[in-house]
Amino acid sequence: MVAAAAAMEAGDIAEAKLKFTDFYEHDGSHHWQIRNISMTTNTANMRPQLILPVSQRDHIQGPATAAVTLVEYGDYQCSHCGHAHPIVKNVQEIMGSRMRFVFRNFPVSSIHPNAQHAAEAAEAAGAQGKFWEMHDYLFEHQDHLEDADLLKYAAKIGLDVVRFNENLQAHTFAARVREDMHSGVRSGVNGTPTFFINGIRHDGPWDIQSLTTALVAAAQGRL
Q1: Ordered DSSP codes for 12-24
Q2: Rounded distance, CA 21 to CA 35, Å?
Q3: What CATH number does residue 133 fall under?
Q4: Which of 8, 26, 77, 85 could form a disulfide with 178 if both were Cys (CB 3.0 to 4.6 A apart)?
Q5: Which segment of 44-48, 54-58, 145-149 scores lowest on mean pLDDT?
Q6: Residue 67: DSSP 8-state
Q7: Is 91 in contact with 99 (CB distance < 8 Å)?
Q8: 92 to each of 39, 52, 89, 104, 169, how far by Cα in Å?
């Protein structure tokens, strides 16, 4: 883990990808099982806690006064995250101002080769004030995430495409993506998508009814 963390901090993208297995091992399905590393847990129920609190660094939808915060660690090329995308939108409509939603990057580049650049594209769009527009576009077109596709999406949502492309080619936001990913690993993310409700990892189902029920319980202080 130390070697992988050092690679991430040094900004060596290639080495960081190679060292992903220092954090995870494949379980034979679509998930990667987390290795034995230090993480923060809730002593009452031993569910992992969010190690990096939600702050102004995050991309947030919903009011700061919301009773419950839902954080998702996701991968733009992950089909399960693509399935979760409309579910989260439905839950947002149901919960209204009672909930705020935060998305953090967790590209599993070992099995999703376009995920890292897609995450950087979302961050580059965020630098121009359009993170959520790109976020939605990426999930709605996740079968087409080559660099040429990303440039098309940037133009369609009204970005300065020259600036956007410069950011992509320079990996301007790679460090930001790694910061999200490292916080996820330390918080117990063991697959994508992984959700946290008021800072505690949600280990139950994430269909609309189940997720809404858990969110309402948290908003009412029953979780």
Answers
A1: -HHHHHHGGGGTE
A2: 9
A3: 3.40.30.10
A4: 8
A5: 44-48
A6: S
A7: yes
A8: 29, 22, 5, 17, 34
Beta partners for residue 201, in sequence order: 196
The count of structural domains within the chain is 1
**Helix, strand, or coil here: 59?**
strand
Tell me the two tokens of residue 127. Answer: 């630098």
User: Using 50, 70 and 90 to split pLDDT, how confident is the model at 222?
Assistant: low
- How do strand 68-74 and strand 59-61 relate by DSSP bridges? unpaired
**Assigned token pair, 79:** 């089909």
Q: Tell me if residue 134 falls in helix, strand or coil.
A: helix
Q: Which of 109, 112, 118 is nearest to 141 (CA)?
A: 118
Please tell me whether residue 70 adopts helix, strand or coil conformation.
strand
Candidates 185, 193, 177; CA nearest to 34 is 185
* Count of C-beta atoms within a 10 Å radius of residue 19: 18
CA dist 100 and 5 (Å) reads 30
Domain boundaries, position 71? 2-219
d(CA 207, CA 88): 9
Q: What's the whole-number mean pLDDT along residues 207-220?
A: 96
Amino acid at 158: G
Angstrom distance (rounded) from CA 113 to CA 134: 19
- Residue type present at position 97: S
